[in-house]
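DamX, an inner membrane protein involved in bile resistance
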Amino acid sequence: MTSDIQVAMLDLDSQIQLLSRIQFLTRFSSNLIQITGREGTGKTWLAQRYLELWAGNSNQALLMCHPAQNDSQHRSIILKQLAFQAVFNEQDPLQQSVDRLFVDSGANLLIVIDDAQLLSPSLIAELWALVQSAQARPGWQVNVLLFSQSGKLDKYLSRVSHGQGQAPIELEITDLTEQEVQTFVEVVFARDRLDAPGRRSLKEKAAATAPTPGALMQLQQTEQTNMAGSSSRKISPMLLLVALLALVAAGVAFMFIPGDEPASVTEQSEPQDYETLPEPVMSSGRFDQQELLAAEEAPQSQPETEVVEEQMVDNTDSLPPQVVTEGLTVGRNSEESKRVVVPSDVVDAMISEQEQGGTGEQALAMRPDVEAAVTDMLEEQTAPVSETALDARPSVSQVQPEEAAPVAVVAPQPSARRSVPGAELKTVDRRHYALQLAALKSMSAANQFIAEYDISRIATIYETRRNGEPWFIIITGDYPDMISARKAETRLPQRLQAVQPWVKSYAQIHREIDRVK
């Protein structure tokens, strides 16, 4: 497709005449000029082209209006571009802020506003008052260019200039001539390498299209879509061939895999083999001794019976033992262990005594027979328990304290010197341009914005200072001129275009980075 640089360098006669007339009107006086045209006539391109090549030496400001912006934001965008490190109040009128910023010297200002039909009537009145004030002050020159749709600002401009003997200047962007349309189409589609039928079809489409740059650029996008569709149709037979080969390979693999199954099938036994097995008789969860001997003497002609018998034995072993509810003791497995049954009334008396702070011995002393039985049992168990405890105690020689492992002390490393985010942008040519996506007051908010829109591969953050406060600006791209940057904006994702990126020169970016120093 045709590169953005070639499209940017295409200057048509009607556009050159319009830009030359604007330059003549703004060279020696202060004026408010309204440039109108219908949708697609290239108002945005003309505004940026004028600033790039025709504006001359002046303090310039470009405002790309958006429906979500208010008057305070419009004033802030304009004033920050007109004066370096400007200090102002966003709520003050433009004339008051400009007088305060340029009080010590004259001012040569150029304010270009695209989509000016989105401006409020109050801000239009402030711009007109700023131009009128500059006309009455020697050494001052203020020109305001309003690029808007036809008829959208006539009512407001006539209202603010009523009774003053002077009215804003209005210029109209005319449609392209037939010769300009042909030239535009030839340059745009120069690298498409169309054949004769393709060029003839393209000329017919151009003749049926509105003679505006925007409508003609839509033909380029349509042509790209058609070429992409044709290329995808050419690739489809290759995809079909790959799918066919995959199916053939799967069929061959399926034919060879079942060859290993007959060996495993022969190991399975038929249902009649199970009838020859003796039915085991269960006794306490195990086979009786006589049944086991009979199983050993049986002929082992079928290996499958051994497998089944082993499985039956394993299953019987996993059965739970019978539950015995009599003579259970806690903590002892010996059958000779003795137990003492304490009556419930004695237990209640001991519990009551313990609740009152006693040990329970008085309640036990009231029943001499129970106390004697408990004493005899404790005397029998005292000796073996003490010996077992002594034997289980580890010797002093066996327990040796482990040597303390040496502790490595890590010396704190000196902290690295803080680097300013975006310092690498200083290496970019100051004549180039970028797209500013957002301006946030913290690095975490900037990283969150990048993560939300998934632009970590194309976005760059640099730090600046505004009124002494840190700001983190998110930009993208390195474009040789303003038109290339505007073209790149149209290729951004729709979600990212919704935040209204605007073109910013690297010269201004370098100045903002230097503010951190």
